[in-house]
Amino acid sequence: MKKLFSTLYVSTQGAYISKERENIVVSLQSKELFRAPVHLINSVVCFGNIMCSPFLLGLCAENNASVSYFTEYGRFIAKVQSPVSGNVLLRKQQYKYSDDGKFCLETAQSVLLGKLSNSRTVINRALRDHEDKISDSDKLKQVSDGLRRAIANVFNAENVDVLRGMEGDAAVAYFSVFNKLILNHKEEFFMPGRNRRPPKDRVNCLLSFVYTLLVHDVSSALEGVGLDPQVGFLHKDRPGRPSLSLDIMEEFRSVIADRLVLTLINLSQVNANGFSESPSGGVIMDDENRKIVIDAYRKRKEEEIFHPFFKENIHIGLLYHAQALLFARYIRGDIDAYPPFIWK
Amino acid sequence: MLVLISYDISTIDAGGQKRLRRVSKECLDYGQRVQYSVFECEVDPTQWIFLKDKLLNTVNLKKDSIRFYMLGSDWKRKIEHYGCKKPVDLHGTLII
Fold first, then answer.
1. If 0-12 CB within 10 Å is exposed, 13-18 middle and 19+ buried, where does residue A322 land?
2. What is the ipTM, given to two decimal places?
3. Is the pLDDT of residue A40 over 80?
4. Of B25, B93, B96, Cβ closest to residue A34
5. In principle, which of A2, A194, A228, B9 could form an S-S bond with B20, CB 3.0–4.6 Å?
6. What is the number of CB-based contacts under 8 A between chain A and chain B?
7. Using an 8 Å Cβ cutoff, are A68 and A81 in contact?
8. Strand partners, B38
9. The pTM is what?
């Protein structure tokens, strides 16, 4: 199995990243801040005004380390990758299947099954562990039951559009009770529902940021096994949208991203004062909080989790890679259905 | 696995300075400098063959000495650090 290496996040404004022999060197006004050999770095993520020398980009591409650029606030801008990547036959098969209605439906059913059952597990876990602290546990039980019925219905859907409708309904129901899972600092951290572009409250801001990190990792994993992250099955193709990443990400949203955000809030790890409102009404977090979130996400990725399909413990950071591998096997026809990661 | 590399290069003769520079650069390609002539390199077996070969071709074994300490893959609990110049934990959070 692949090894889990570190991601280098650079958020010092004005920093310059260059190559020196086999090293990645980060410097600020010609003062060296960091140096590491490229083979120990999985990817480089730049936030805001960070400069990378062309030779560094070449070095990273050669060593299969991706370099991505985000705005200071975490919106994805661009990604640099090596010239030839992946297996063209696998991708051609993926394109062919993406026009095949039956295949799309079956894939979307698996993906949705993963998403719904994991969302439900998150709610059920909260009920089991903290029922005493949750104000309105009946509402949670209702949503959990609703999700259970939806799961049973997934395989009755006749086409992908029906599934998209089910997904939307489930998401609305799930986020309508998300507030109840927040047990601490309820005045500062409160969400009326999911909103984005821009997120209008602190919880949505945190969720959006963690989803961004997640999309980035899932896309890298898909590209790593030779799939095209833009050609999806549940999500429609749209220029610039990593539809397949979004498909595969569905099963991870609640288990990894949502729970991470809840932990950060419930254990008072993020600071409610570290958020500010932009003129457009969006809420953005400061550097301090962003570091806390990134750090917590990295720690989460190093934890181990039991993978029910491989029947072994793997790092959460490698979960994306494992699912990408399974998806590639599914496209190749080695397995009959895509087994989503289902959290127990 | 982690390999600790330490060396003594004789700089009395003309080529010494050059060898010293080359050895340090080659070590730096694979790891980080923890003290002046001490490097920690995390390598897989293939990389280790390349690195060792490069180093042994650079040093002059009549005048210099170089030592390799194999710390294996479970090296984290075998190393303690005191004092300044703490090396970067490349498996930790790298936020610059």
1. buried
2. 0.81
3. yes
4. B96
5. B9
6. 59
7. no
8. B6, B35
9. 0.69
